[in-house]
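Memo to structure team: turn this sequence into structure tokens by end of day. - J.P.
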Amino acid sequence: MPGPQPLTDEQWQRIVLFGTPEEVAAGDYLFRSGERDYDLILVDTAEVELVRDSLWWLDESVLAVNGARTFAGELGLLNGQGAFLSARASRAGRVYRVPRAGLRKVMSEDDELCDLLLRTLWQRREALRKGPAALTLKFVGSPASKDFESLRRFAERLDLVHTAFEIEPGDPYAFEHHDVAPEDLPIAFIQGEPILRATPGLVADRLGLSYSGDSDEVVDLVVIGGGPAGLAAAIYGASEGLSTVLLDAVAPGGQAAATSRIENFLGFPFGVSGGELIGQASLQALKFGVRVYAPCEAARLRSSEDGLEVTLTDGRVIHARTAIVTSGAAYRRLPLARWDEFEGAGIYYAATQFELRHVVDSPVVVVGGANSAGQAALYLSSHGSPVRLVVRGDDLGRRMSAYLVDRLQEDPAIEVLTGANITALEGDGSLERVRIDAAGEVDARGLFCFIGADPATGWLDELDRDAGGFLRTGTDIPEERLDGPWMRLGREPLPFETSVPRVFAAGDVRRGSMKRVAAAVGEGSSAVASVHRALAG
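Reply from structure team:
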């Protein structure tokens, strides 16, 4: 990892005002890997080296040395994540400690320093991916394992520096010198310590990515769901001074993160992948102080005399003054035998680089008639896969943008089958063939399913929903639901406000919303305007 550039005299004089001076001796640790409560270290007359600590199979590695007027810290400082590396004084002298609260103050009060810190911390994160630091978080598992795939997807969606090693459970040499068994897979090694039968939740707890607020803490805004609507709401809320928590059951991004290419989003004339868009939005959320927790699933939301309570699936409770529900929707599945068997082993709900590595150059089937299906078909064909696009309706242009229809019809690697249905799945351990009523049995290494989703609202008992489960908001709420608390408030629901005061909804989960990324971003940011009005009242 390259050493940092020194700050200018003017920058240094401004930033040290946020720190506390401390004299250190050579060999002193300023923070250790795994620590959750650590400081940004401003290096004055001392010298500080960043170290990937020794693992039980590997000696320590010095990754960079920080000299005068530089700083030691990681991107995780902005989100409460535990330290990835250790910082150790290699020469005695003076440093300044800037606690997380002080760092947040720098970010909010000094635009130049904010941009410099954010850009440097992000560049360090990117540089770590190609060096020995990536071994600090290591996953080991079978390539056919759904649990192993879940770990990798979790790390990639959260942009965690990591490595993944594939082994076959039946390989006797893989376990010969290790005190583990095939049934212990997948294994996550964090700082060399193994977590057997690892899950994203267990890894998140160890890394400091699970919610751990004080029991008496009350946040201004909790956003439930990290798709485009949720990220927009959290960013706008935090940038306007609201203490904001963002929760997602998997990782930020929602269905947008699974989109290979978005071509009609404002400001991206050459298109942008969902992963890139969500990655930049997540970094923006950290910049403004959003506390992002994932995987962190909400199980219940209820109002109380003191505000709102969001209960998580692990029993922890978040107290908030307002909430915005952006929990999106759950992918629909085809009612076919062996569907569960092939999920993660040939059946996918996204077409990104993550899925591509399983099907590259192999024939695939895409099912669906909207933009997401068209974009997936084009992405897969552009990477060497012959594609059959199965559309139940007879008119490809009924739910798909015209530019996509044209490109699909012009692509020689794509066969469009309208008025067609998938009737059976076949394969030995993983998907190998698909039966289509209009084409018979065809080879398929992957089946990419884009047939819509159902709103994730089953846990919201107190909120009024329509027959499809979507949340009613604003003037869409029936008058008979506007009694009790509404009478005491002396007002009607604000735009995006649900049937429970100070609980709002935006994006795919809201009745009447347009199922597009740009619309979700607009709704999430607009809902924050109503949040301010509710808090002011």
